[in-house]
Design goal:
Blueprint: H1 6-26, E1 32-41, E2 45-46, E3 49-50, E4 57-66, E5 70-78, H2 81-84, E6 95-98, E7 101-113, E8 116-126, E9 129-131, E10 140-149, E11 152-159, E12 174-183, E13 189-199, H3 213-217, E14 219-229, E15 240-250, H4 254-257, E16 263-266, E17 269-272, E18 283-291
Antiparallel strand pairs: 1-4, 1-18, 2-3, 4-5, 5-7, 6-9, 7-8, 8-10, 10-11, 11-12, 12-13, 13-14, 14-15, 15-18, 16-17
Length: 292
């Protein structure tokens, strides 16, 4: 048997490795991407309103994306506001069972042209459980469209369902989101800025003194945040982010979002808040999250 000399053996192995690498390079990349995320938050704040009575929230979701630009996803979090509102009234909350989880299901199409990006889709907010007599489930369907340029994003959401977060006759309710996420050089820090305008449409028959949904529930909100990519400290923490955010609102009516101990007025009639705490007050949230 002929033995290969050392140099010939190295050449043969190198050639074999090169062939394998070439074969692998010839394999087409998969058009499918599946990612997941999970996070622990000191509280859940949605559009400036605390959803967990300033208590911690565990959140997470899954996302599927196709190379064509189409995507689907789901996301969830614990909540408490549907079991806490209407404090001091009978019944004592909107939901008599369930109402402690928010599940979001969404899908759409996104793409980019140079530095400009676009995203359109549908989002279903789902709150499983049973409501008390005279109240509505908070399930809400929205269509959205967003445009972005580098660090800046403008997103418009429009309610397609007649019931919007438990408010009746609210089809056409909208939310305008102006935001920016600005990285600080190569530090791993990102400064976030946000301003939102929640505008309700229609008139729920149960509103105090026949007030419009706009008078009772519309408001503006803003947020400033600082997030840190922990992979900058160590690759062991790849995909992990820690952050802190401050949120607050303006023009939020006490009768719609205030504490039961607070008094206000709407459409010329006196009324009080319906939550244990004012859910539209300024809030500070800290979090740690991980993406996979």
């Amino acid at each position: 048997m002929t033995k290969l000399k050392p140099i010939a053996l190295l050449i043969s192995l190198s050639t074999l490795g090169l062939s394998a690498a070439t074969f692998a390079a010839d394999e087409p990349a998969s058009p499918h991407t599946l990612t997941a995320n999970v996070g622990l938050y000191s509280q859940y704040v949605f559009r400036g309103l605390t959803q967990t009575n300033e208590e911690p929230a565990i959140q997470g979701g899954f996302d599927y994306a196709h190379s064509s630009g189409f995507y689907l996803g789901t996301w969830g979090s614990n909540i408490s506001w549907l079991r806490e509102n209407l404090t001091g009234s009978t019944p004592s909350s909107t939901y008599k069972s369930g109402g402690s989880v928010e599940l979001d299901f969404y899908g759409g199409y996104k793409g980019s042209v140079g530095d400009f990006g676009y995203d359109v889709g549908l989002l279903q907010y789902y709150y499983p459980g049973d409501v008390n007599t005279g109240f509505l489930k908070a399930n809400t369907l929205e269509a959205y469209a967003a445009g972005s340029w580098k660090w800046f994003t403008v997103k418009y959401s429009h309610a397609l369902s007649n019931h919007v977060f438990g408010v009746n006759d609210a089809r056409g309710t909208s939310y305008l989101d102006l935001s920016a996420a600005v990285p600080i050089a190569e530090t791993g820090l990102t400064v976030g800025l946000h301003y939102g305008m929640q505008t309700y449409d229609g008139k729920d028959p149960i509103n105090t003194n026949g007030a419009s949904n706009d008078a009772l529930y519309s408001y503006d909100d803003y947020k400033i945040s600082l997030a840190y990519d922990m992979s900058k400290a160590s690759k062991t923490f790849s995909g992990m982010t820690v952050g802190v955010a401050y949120t607050d609102t303006s023009s939020a009516n006490t009768c719609g979002y205030g504490a039961s101990t607070q008094s206000g007025s709407v459409n010329g009639a006196a009324c009080t808040g319906v939550f244990p705490k004012n859910i539209a007050n300024g809030q500070t949230t800290v979090w740690v999250s991980k993406s996979f």
